[in-house]
Amino acid sequence: MSRLIVASQLPDLFNSVFAQHVGDAEIVAVPPGLAAPLPAQAKVLVAAPFRKAGGVLPPEPPKGWPYDVQWVQLVSVGIDFYPDWLFDGPVVTSARGSSAVALAEFALAAILADAKRLPDIWIDKAARWAPQPLKLIAGTTLGLVGFGAIGEALAPRAQALGLNVIATRRSDKPIPTPGVERVADLKTLFARSDHVVLAAPATPETQRLIGREVLAAAKPGLHLINIARGALIDDEALLEALDDGRVSRASLDVTHPEPLTEGHPFYSHPKVRLSPHTSVHTPDTRINLATRFAENLARFRSGAPLADVVDLSRGY
After folding, report:
1. By CB count within 10 A, which of 79, 259, 279, 301 is most buried?
2. 229 is catalytic
3. Are strands 25-29 and 4-8 parallel, antiparallel or unpaired?
4. Residue 258 annotated to the active site
5. What's the domain range around 57?
């Protein structure tokens, strides 16, 4: 069997993990985007994002689809960081589920940090030695906006800590996790939740999904956590809700654009905890992605249908 050439736009750290899992294939590093042609023998492209959130996507090449490959593997779940024309060529698969545990743990860390007032309660002098009032998360309600791989990872972990979990889901499929209550709409979810985690893809339908109307229905003191895409939130509406107390905390690992412009209110707002889209940067994300890619590579070589094929109508 001939050795399969895989062109990868990922950094060396990712490529070395991929190489460990695909022993029958050669990983050839190539620059991101359209900076250089791919090796002539490459049958597979592992594509890095073509932009950051809010950035400009490259136009379609004048001669149409530029790559002579048979399969494109994305390194993200959502497809909003890639140009439309990328999906006009061969089959495209996503990284669905590869970072679900990392994202679930990050969301739980944000919930615990809010309830236990971390890092505010750390002290550095005797004069500050005074007990501080904290909150329990047991008995509170977690609302999930979207219930896919992230929800499946997060819900049982939250339930184990005593949280009640409710969710909205675009699909008509039943929620597979026992004990998770499906609610009809966002307003109901926000009205009942103490913590809300955004776990929906960025699509035209979800653009600024969390705006004034939804936030006006929020339970007073709501904690909003975004680990999905910054474009889901109307920033001005969120700032208003933070200032009037309807939302007590916003933990944002994603924004639109990325990075935010210098001087953006999120950098300095006392109720905002901002991190630089770092929740997925764990070793298991790289390993999971490499493992799933290797499984799909076996299917590709045997002519079997690939898993995690992108559904353009769903946005992932």
Report:
1. 79
2. yes
3. parallel
4. yes
5. 4-98+282-302
